[in-house]
Amino acid sequence: MTRYHDYEPEEWDEMVDTFAEPGGNSALRRATRDNPRNLPCPTCHCLNRLTPEDRAHGYQCNSCANAMECGGEINYYEGDDEEPYDPDDEEYEGYSDSIASLRGE
Predict the structure, then answer these.
(1) In the chain, N or C terminus with fewer CB closer than 10 Å?
(2) What's the distance, CA 45 to chain centroid?
(3) CB distance 1 to 24 below 8 Å
(4) 3-state secondary structure of 19
(5) What is the mean pLDDT of residues 83-94?
């Protein structure tokens, strides 16, 4: 991941607020309570890979994007081995701390 000091503070703050992996290769949007990662990938159909914003931009999951860009194989969804999205999951409670950390606060 690119370090936050490689960007102007305002530019980095916008990236942290927008992207799941700010400074990285992924274009996927950050998951929040208002933008949960609860949608399947349109390519491999794996569950909980995209947010509503990702879908609105026509994205696919990182695994499929990397496979298509690098000539790899796509691993298609074969069963219900993932838990459905739960908005009360503790995973979403730490976002404000994670964002502050990414901003160097």
Answers:
(1) C
(2) 16
(3) yes
(4) strand
(5) 50
pTM recorded for the entire structure: 0.65
Nearest of 82, 35, 73, 33 to residue 54 by alpha carbon: 35
Length in residues, the chain = 105
Collapse the DSSP code of 39 into the 3-class scheme (helix H, G, I; strand E, B; otherwise coil) and give the result: strand
Best CA proximity match to 58, nearest among 30, 27, 23: 27
- Which neighbouring-strand residues pair with 50? 39
Sign of the torsion angle spanned by Cα atoms 66, 6, 30, 10? negative
Is the pLDDT at 25 greater than 70? The verdict is yes
Q: By residue range, what is the domain housing residue 93?
A: 4-102
Q: How far is CA 84 from the centre of its chain?
A: 16
Find the helix packing angle between 95-102 and 9-18, rounded to 10°.
150
Q: Which residues have C-beta within 8 Å of that of residue 83, sequence separation ≥ 6?
A: 48
> How confident is residue 101, by pLDDT bands cut at 50, 70 and 90?
low
Per-residue tokens: 89: 């999951």
Give residue 15's pLDDT: 77
